[in-house]
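Incident log, support desk, overnight shift.

02:14 A customer reports that sequence design results differ from what the structure should imply. Their input is reproduced verbatim below. On-call engineer (initials T.W.) acknowledged and began investigating.
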């Protein structure tokens, strides 16, 4: 019998599984949009056991895992980090949120995002910010539907590529 997906905080013991899931989901999200060699370098540097273990042990960060059938179906990584654009009041960054493509359209991304906001409220954060590549139309549409507003932009370097990220912000309801 299939168990419904669950969401929990990741621990350092999840580093290997999270690195594997992160590689898979990043490649799913950007396959064909970024040159293969740039993607390979980025994934190798950001989704390995060492980098994930470091992130999972960061005392001002939280990684949430969406799991089903003992596998990571999605994850979100948020941390205390002020927005990089002057005048944007938000000190919790949603650094990453990914969902395995087979779960797209099921409501699981919204469920994971709801948990992100709950975690941000625990940190007394009045708002969450994120950066999304300006060419990732699907993600921008999702964020807009879920209450995020574009409030600026800045450059993001992915290997030798310089891209423009849209800075988006949403209130958490924290007082």
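02:41 Re-run completed on a clean worker. Output:
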């Amino acid at each position: 019998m299939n168990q419904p997906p669950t969401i929990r905080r990741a621990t350092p013991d999840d580093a290997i599984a999270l690195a594997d899931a992160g590689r898979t989901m990043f490649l799913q999200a950007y396959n064909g949009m970024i040159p293969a060699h740039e993607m390979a370098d980025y994934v190798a540097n950001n989704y390995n056991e060492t980098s994930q273990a470091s992130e999972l042990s960061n005392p001002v960060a939280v990684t949430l895992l969406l799991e089903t059938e003992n596998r990571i179906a999605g994850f979100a990584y948020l941390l205390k980090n002020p927005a990089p654009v002057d005048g944007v009041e938000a000190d919790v960054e949603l650094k990453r949120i990914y969902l395995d493509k087979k779960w797209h359209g099921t409501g699981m991304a919204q469920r994971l995002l709801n948990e992100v906001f709950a975690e941000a409220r625990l940190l007394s954060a009045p708002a969450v910010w994120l950066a999304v590549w300006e060419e990732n139309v699907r993600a921008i549409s999702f964020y807009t539907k879920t209450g995020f507003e574009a409030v600026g932009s800045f450059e993001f370097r992915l290997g030798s590529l310089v891209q423009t990220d849209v800075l988006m912000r949403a209130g958490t309801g924290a007082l």
